[in-house]
Amino acid sequence: MNRHTEHLAQDRAISMLSQDLRPCIVVLETGITKPKARELYREIHGVRPRSGQMRDADSIVRTRREFSAASCIMSFYCALAPNYASRVDPEAVMAAHRIYLEDNPPASHRITLNEVWVLARALRSAEARLVPCSKCSAKYLEVARQHYAPACPHC
Ligand SMILES: [Zn+2]
């Protein structure tokens, strides 16, 4: 990385970390080093980032409510990120989550920003997909190995 791209990468990293995206995601999305990402996280939040495995897509959405929320967020995401099948767009991940929170009180939301990123990665890898409902015509999320029987969570 030359100094200019390094600077841009760090700016993006700061914006992502400020919204509480995990350092491991920010490393993947910006190319900054893991120690740098963890150091920036600590500077921004005043605490060390938690470590540990990311949840898998199928464990993020387990109930009808979670499927309903995830279907709305991922529909926003796909509208904002037309190339969602070839790459994850972290800015669109953040925007889709923000739009969802604007219309839904925090208590009703169960999908975190980091989980939206995991679902966006699942859409890219075709581990998840949005399916149009034949009754209400809204799109709903289907995830490989899901526990909830595949059906529209809105109907
Ligand atoms: Zn439906």
Sum this structure up briefly.
The protein is mainly α and 155 residues long. It is built from seven helices and two strands, in the order H-H-H-H-H-H-H-E-E. Bound molecules: zinc ion.
Q: What structural class results from the helix and strand content? A: mainly alpha
What quaternary form is this?
Answer: single chain
Tell me the strand order in the biggest sheet. Answer: 1-2
Provide the low-confidence segments as ranges: none
> Into which percent range does the helicity of residues fall?
40-55%
Q: What is the CA-CA span between the terminal residues?
A: 50 Å
Main beta-sheet annotation = 2 strands, antiparallel
H and E string: HHHHHHHEE
- Bound compounds: zinc ion
Strand content: 5-15%
Radius of gyration, CA atoms, in whole angstroms: 16 Å
pLDDT averaged residue by residue? 92
